[in-house]
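Justification of computing resources. Each target in the renewal requires a structure prediction run like the one illustrated here; the chain below, 129 residues long, is used simply to show the kind of job we budget for.
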Amino acid sequence: MQNLAYKAYGDITKRTSSDRQLEQALFLQITEALESAAEAGPKEFLGWVDAIHRNLQLWTVLATDLLNPNNPLPDDLKGRLISIFQFVRRHSHTLLGGQGDIADLIEINRNIMGLPAKTGGPAVEGEAA
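Resulting structure tokens:
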């Protein structure tokens, strides 16, 4: 996972020092791109497609790492994360086909990062944007 992530997202690696920090930075950056795409809507089609594609790339790298026999996570957790990846993959293709709601991908990523879902109201103090 680390080599693929470093190659795809080299600028982030300069700001992080561990695999966990790299993961968090990638999730945050990509989730923010999804949120921006959701706010802009169809008028920014290329940004919308790019955000979905980058999110799918991130989840593909994570799934690849989860399938590695040397991955130390418990099998149950790996299985649940692979199931999430499968949903993200299917839903991304649905979105790129012109149906569905990008908010579903945002909610998944925010849950994985341990952040509350945004409600559209004022940001909660201390919440990451």
